């Protein structure tokens, strides 16, 4: 190695630096998308928040659409509902899980804010719910062919809760204790999942 080469840019350090840079960009993007929305958030502002040059954002993500897709790449880690006992308790299991996810993951709040005002955000949210919530509905509902509309009804309740509690922060919604939310909402989710088709 000659005296002019930067040792931190070679070997095992380069992937670590790359990961750190990507992490900083994504963290800044999530905060910026959450606060400004998709339309007003800019690559320049996100790069400034991440303390890097805007060209680095473009290098890793090409454009704002690519950055947004990466920033809101979310695995909900939904619980497995197979088995009679878990199906009987599916409403409670799902509501408790979603409360954990929403309260610990600001990315979902950012995505919901963007999703209600921007087609790209709405499409991303639809994809997450389709790809992750629909299979769970198929596990629990009596007729898997009914899973699409049953999962849509579940989403209406869960997203409604998230919108009022975590985005709009309506005092009655934020004032409910976690146990109260579960007690009120779990029976509705259970009914959407397992009740006979009306």
CATH topology (level 3) name of the largest domain: Tetracycline Repressor, domain 2
- Under the CATH scheme, the architecture of the largest domain is Orthogonal Bundle
In round numbers, the mean pLDDT is 87
How large a portion of the residues is in β-strands, by DSSP E?
A: under 5%
SSE pattern: HHHHHHHHHHH
Largest sheet: none
Which CATH class of the largest domain applies here?
Answer: Mainly Alpha
Could you name the ranges where pLDDT drops below 50 across 5 or more consecutive residues?
Answer: 1-9
Helix content: over 70%
Tally of individual domains: 2
Number of helices: 11
- Structural class category: mainly alpha
How would you describe this protein?
By secondary structure, the protein is mainly alpha-helical. The chain has 2 domains: 63 residues, Homeodomain-like (Arc Repressor Mutant, subunit A); 111 residues, Tetracycline Repressor, domain 2. Helices cover 74% and strands 0% of the residues. The chain contains 11 helices and no strands. The chain starts with 12 loop residues before the first helix and ends with a helix.
